[in-house]
Protein: Sarcosine oxidase
Organism: Rhizobium metallidurans
Amino acid sequence: MTAQYDVAVVGLGAMGSAALAFLAARGVKVIGIDAYHPAHTLGSSHGDSRLIRLGYFEDPSYVPLLQRAYRNWRALEARLRADVLEITGVLQIGAPDSKIVSGTRASCAMHGLAHEVLDRDETARRFPVFQLDRDDIAVLDPQGGYLRPETAVLGYLKLAAEDGAVLHFGERVTAIEHDDAGVTIRSAGGTYRSRKVIVATGSWIAELLPELRGHAVPIRQVVAWYQPKDGFVTQPGRMPCFLRDEGDEGSYFGFPAIGVDGVKVGRHAHFREPIDPNQPNPPVNDKDTALLDGFIGKRLPAAAGVRANATTCRYTMLPSEDFLLDIAPSSANVVIASPCSGHGFKFTSVVGEILADLALDGGSELPIGAFSFDAMRRYLDRRAG
Ligand SMILES: Cc1cc2nc3c(=O)[nH]c(=O)nc-3n(C[C@H](O)[C@H](O)[C@H](O)COP(=O)(O)OP(=O)(O)OC[C@H]3O[C@@H](n4cnc5c(N)ncnc54)[C@H](O)[C@@H]3O)c2cc1C
């Protein structure tokens, strides 16, 4: 007999694990299915650390969701009795009119968020690891910091299981068929019926959701860790996490020496190389390491000792580089968990809540209007001219 659920969650990385936990906490009969075993290194939610910040330069409309995300992260920690969110401050550095600096200040001003604006000398005095150009400034977000992605994913799955969710790992979903009453989910391991399904398959999302083909594009991302030359100025507490706007060259991000590998840096979206999600990520090459070695040597010379490690990961980009959190146009029983364009992890704790709302209530009271299918279509129309 085919097993019957209220909601099925396909994909148990960041977004799917959180959605599953919120659904199970609401007492519904729920199953989560993942092709691999958590917290694996084949998707987008591994690598020790993810930035979180409140003064969001990308758009001030994200701030209310971030405020909710902070609250939800603390609730996760309280239930798990584990540390997931560490506050180090986030320093956002660049020319005064650069996108990151001016956008962060605008976001802070609009929402009345605490922040400090530092000139080059003040930055050097307080955070000596950073090398600023003469006219650069830095905006300190005192509420910024980093999240531990593996702890978060495993933690949400643990809570989901405690609250009665059924978990299937190592089982790839091959088809989702929908009808008026619900969905049929097929995998090599079985067939399941559910009233609703949340598709949270990250870089693989277009395989199960035809409406995202050509719109959700997985790209290669590379990060590297360096043993600091000066182990004092790179300690958390002495060194905040950071974003650095390099104008036409894009932006870089990084973390203090959290673990044994040292200071971690990456360039947002790296070289924007599309990848096949079903192939292993192309390995780290000399061009990748030359880029990151060059950046750290120029901008954080005290951190630029031996490169201890470098690895690949993947972003899944949407056309506007925003999110997509909506019911699928093809079926009211299918909910789309956003491929988050390389900046979604910090929102995991609120996205999980939103996905549960969409599946159970057909909508959410949280402000997600900008992340609808219609918003994506409008963006595409504008871009087409
Ligand atoms: C290097 C790097 C740095 C980043 N830095 C930041 C940061 O500092 N701050 C920030 O906010 N965000 C950051 N991001 C982005 C953030 O990590 C991602 O947006 C987020 O992790 C995506 O989560 P996800 O659940 O969508 O995907 P994933 O975690 O990849 O989960 C998708 C899951 O679906 C499963 N799956 C796929 N297909 C199937 C199938 N057919 N059947 C069953 N299961 C399936 C996969 O096995 C996987 O477990 C970064 C990303 C990378 C790669």
